[in-house]
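Retro notes (design track)

What went well: tokenization of the new backbones is finally stable.
What didn't: we kept losing track of which sequence belonged to which structure.
Fix going forward: every design gets posted as structure first, then sequence, in one message. First example under the new rule, 428 residues:
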């Protein structure tokens, strides 16, 4: 069984690597490290199919080290020790470079074993991960490694790889290809920045192509059938999930309806209906808040409708809700108030509840001094009476500060007129 096309045409040097120019272009930091000949321990972080393994192979070859490869999903402590044992052999004379794919799947004990051999110099480690290494990799290994982030390859760079793949197959199979207009562009856009996926699509297109007069015709229709769904990167438990949700909320907060709708579309395109619903409800309270208090009720109605409708119709009320939130006036006064209050409580700012505010609806409450002296505000002018509600140690605290939007400023003027004083700033 022949190796996949992506392996057969794997780049031999850094100049042939597709994308990652911020790392491998002439003068880039990773390239300078490789050219120095002194290879440190490194962690390559990024999505699959963007060149992490390829670059590790090139580095090992340029350093003259023996390359061993393990996968974190299947590797055991014994596998690691077996590789370290090769340091005393002829093959390991110039040193060993261990490429460990998906290091995040090693448990803590396995990572500690690996650390032992990194520290004594038995091996040079290049590990890769599709997850954020600062969340999944043992801190001691992180502190002894340099992290390099690999990024999804742009469609333009992928197009070059696709054309090279078609040319490679023509030469390898001694065949002629007639590639219909739009095929290269479609594959480049549907692979989600994954070069390996795009090259695999090329091979499938060629294998399925009809032959006429000795020429294989690669059609756009076939290319679309092979890559029916855009392979946008998305995993509900991975970084990309939280990155999209973060960008989604920040776009709403930044009052950019176009960006907000874009990120909503990415979530829905991945079939994720619950995440944007939850995030919009949070955003309605956190970022719009008291500037437009009705927003959360409207968003709740849209969310309920979306969940009842299901996809694809759910996109309509959700789009309505997102645009409403993005274009609404903004206020974070509510979250600032509750966060300030919770911070005080965590730091011990509690104090005894004033006796007249305590529950007096039980036998013996008055004997204990409960609820005595409380003034019922509704019996007073404007339904307000100046009495202390906070405990004595924090009686002068002000957690809520009126926002500068129309709605909150109207409330501010109302209470200023009734209380005869302005709203004091929050105290430290």
């Amino acid at each position: 069984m022949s190796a996949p096309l992506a392996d057969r045409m794997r780049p031999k040097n850094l100049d042939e690597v597709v994308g990652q120019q911020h790392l491998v272009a002439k003068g880039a930091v990773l390239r300078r490290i490789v050219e120095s000949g002194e290879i440190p321990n490194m962690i390559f972080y990024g999505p699959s199919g963007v060149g992490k393994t390829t670059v590790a192979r090139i580095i090992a070859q340029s350093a003259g080290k023996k390359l061993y490869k393990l996968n974190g999903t299947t590797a055991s402590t014994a596998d690691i020790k077996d590789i370290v044992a090769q340091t005393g052999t002829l093959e390991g004379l110039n040193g060993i470079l261990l490429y460990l794919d998906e290091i995040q799947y090693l448990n803590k004990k396995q990572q500690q074993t690996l650390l032992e051999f990194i520290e004594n110099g038995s091996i040079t480690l290049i590990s890769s991960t599709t997850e954020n290494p600062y969340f999944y990799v043992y801190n001691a290994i992180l502190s002894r490694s340099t992290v390099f982030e690999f990024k999804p390859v742009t469609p333009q760079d992928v197009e070059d790889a696709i054309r090279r793949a078609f040319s490679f197959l023509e030469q390898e199979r001694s065949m002629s290809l007639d590639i219909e207009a739009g095929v290269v562009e479609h594959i480049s856009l549907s692979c989600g920045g994954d070069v390996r996926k795009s090259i695999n699509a090329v091979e499938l297109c060629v294998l399925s192509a009809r032959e006429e007069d000795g020429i294989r015709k690669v059609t756009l229709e076939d290319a679309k059938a092979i890559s029916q769904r855009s392979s946008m990167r998305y995993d509900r438990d991975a970084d990309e999930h939280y990155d999209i949700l973060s960008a989604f909320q920040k776009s709403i907060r930044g009052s950019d309806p176009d960006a907000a709708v874009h990120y909503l579309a990415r979530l829905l395109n991945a079939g994720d209906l619950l995440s944007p619903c939850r995030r919009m409800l949070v955003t309605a309270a956190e970022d719009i808040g008291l500037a437009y208090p009705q927003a959360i009720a409207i968003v709740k109605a849209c969310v309920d409708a979306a969940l009842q409708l299901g996809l694809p119709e759910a996109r309509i009320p959700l789009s309505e809700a997102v645009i409403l939130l993005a274009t609404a006036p903004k206020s974070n006064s509510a979250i600032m108030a509750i966060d300030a209050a919770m911070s005080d409580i965590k730091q011990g700012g509690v104090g005894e509840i004033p006796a007249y505010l305590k529950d007096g609806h039980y036998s013996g409450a008055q004997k204990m001094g409960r609820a005595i002296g409380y003034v019922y505000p509704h019996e007073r002018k404007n339904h307000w009476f100046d009495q202390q509600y906070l405990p004595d140690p924090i009686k002068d605290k002000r957690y809520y500060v009126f926002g500068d939007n129309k709605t909150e400023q109207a409330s501010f003027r109302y209470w200023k007129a009734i209380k005869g004083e302005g709203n004091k700033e929050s105290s430290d």
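Added context from the reviewer: The chain has 19 helices and eight strands.
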